[in-house]
Write a structure and sequence with these properties.
Elements (H helix, E strand, L loop, with lengths): L16 H23 L5 H23 L3 H6 L3 H26 L3 H22 L6 H21 L4 H17 L6 H25 L10 H25 L4 H7 L2 H13 L6 H28 L1
Helix pairs in contact: 1-9, 1-11, 2-4, 2-8, 2-9, 4-7, 4-8, 5-6, 5-7, 5-11, 5-12, 6-12
C-alpha cells in the first residue's frame, strides 16, 4: 500500500479491483487467524489480548502516518464524546477478542464460525430493535432460522452455545456503536487500542515482573508470536477499512461469509473438531437463513434501482 494509491472515497459507480483485493486479503487473513491463535493457545488469553493491544498501537499508528490520516486522532483525543464512544467500542472489541482467543485455544473454532455466520442476522435484528428499522418478511424468516440454530445447539449441549452467541452479540454491538464514531474505521481502531494501551501495558509488565509472562521467557518463539499479534490484528482491519470504501455494500455483504467459511473448514479438516448431527442441522439452518437474507438484500436493491 502507498499513501497516494489508496482511494479514500466511497465507490460510486460500482466495485473496483483494488477494493476487492483489499477486502479479499482481509477476509483471507481473518479466515486463517485460527492457526495463529492455536499457536498461542498455551499462553493465557489475557496475556494474548494485552500483547494484541500493545503491538497493534505501533502497527496501526505507522499505517496512519503513512496514509496521512492522523488529524482525526488529534481531534478525537480532545473531544470528550468521541473519547467516550471510543472507550465503549474498545471495551466491546476486547471482550470479543477474549471470547475468540479462548474459544480457539479450547477447541471451539467451529462455534466461532457459527457466531460470525449469525452476526449479520443479529445486526439487522439489532437495527430493528434499537433504531426502528423495518425488516422484511424474508429478514424475519432468516432471523428465526438463526434462532432455531441456537436452540438446536442449546438442546444438544444442555446449555446456550455462549461462544457463538457472545461473538455475535459483542461484534454486533461493536459495529453498531462504531457507527457513532465521527472518524474513519482505521482511525477508530487506532483510537481504541490507544485507549486500551495503558491497562494492557500494566498487565503485561506485571506478568513479566512476577515471572508469569511469556514475552521474556526462555522460549523465543513465544516472544515472536506475541510481537506478531499486532500485525495479525491491525493489518486485516486496515485492509478491510480501505476495501470497504471501494466496494458496494452488497459486495461486502457477500464477502463477509468468506472468513467464517474458512474458519469452519479449518475447524473440521485441520483441527478435527467433532461435527455432530445437531451441529450439521444448526449450520444448515444458519446457511438457509443467510441465503434468504442475501436474496432479500439483492431484491431490495433491485427494487430501489
Amino acid at each position: 500500500m502507498a499513501t497516494q494509491s489508496i482511494d479514500t472515497s466511497a465507490a460510486s459507480g460500482g466495485d473496483t479491483a483494488r477494493g476487492f483485493a483489499f477486502a479479499l486479503s482481509a477476509y483471507l487473513l481473518w479466515g486463517g487467524l485460527p492457526f495463529y491463535m492455536k499457536a498461542v493457545a498455551h499462553i493465557p488469553t489475557g496475556e494474548v489480548i494485552a500483547h494484541r493491544i500493545i503491538w497493534s498501537v505501533p502497527v496501526a499508528g505507522a499505517i496512519l502516518l503513512w496514509l496521512g490520516r492522523t488529524a482525526d486522532i488529534r481531534a478525537a483525543l480532545t473531544t470528550p464524546r468521541t473519547l467516550a464512544m471510543g472507550a465503549l467500542t474498545a471495551a466491546l472489541i476486547s471482550v470479543n477478542w477474549g471470547i475468540y482467543i479462548w474459544a480457539i485455544a479450547s477447541g471451539r473454532a467451529m462455534e466461532t464460525a457459527l457466531g460470525y455466520y449469525i452476526n449479520p442476522l443479529f445486526s439487522i435484528f439489532l437495527a430493528a430493535v434499537l433504531i426502528g428499522e423495518k425488516l422484511t418478511r424474508a429478514q424475519w424468516v432468516a432471523i428465526a432460522l438463526a434462532a432455531m440454530a441456537v436452540a438446536v445447539l442449546t438442546w444438544e449441549r444442555g446449555g446456550l452455545p455462549w461462544v457463538s452467541v457472545g461473538l455475535a452479540i459483542t461484534w454486533g454491538f461493536y459495529a453498531f456503536a462504531k457507527r457513532t464514531l465521527p472518524i474513519g474505521a482505521a482511525q477508530g481502531f487506532f483510537l481504541e487500542v490507544l485507549l486500551l494501551l495503558a491497562p494492557a501495558l500494566v498487565y503485561a509488565i506485571w506478568l513479566e515482573l512476577t515471572g508469569a509472562g511469556h514475552f521474556s521467557g526462555p522460549v523465543l518463539g513465544d516472544a515472536l508470536l506475541l510481537l506478531g499479534a499486532g500485525l495479525v490484528t491491525a493489518v486485516p482491519l486496515i485492509l478491510y477499512a480501505n476495501g470497504a470504501k471501494l466496494l458496494k455494500l452488497s459486495t461486502i455483504g457477500i464477502m463477509q461469509y468468506i472468513a467464517p467459511t474458512l474458519i469452519f473448514v479449518v475447524a473440521v479438516f485441520a483441527f478435527h473438531e467433532p461435527f455432530t448431527a445437531a451441529t450439521a442441522l444448526a449450520f444448515a439452518l444458519i446457511w438457509a437463513g443467510l441465503v434468504i437474507y442475501t436474496w432479500s438484500m439483492f431484491a431490495d436493491r433491485r427494487a430501489a434501482r
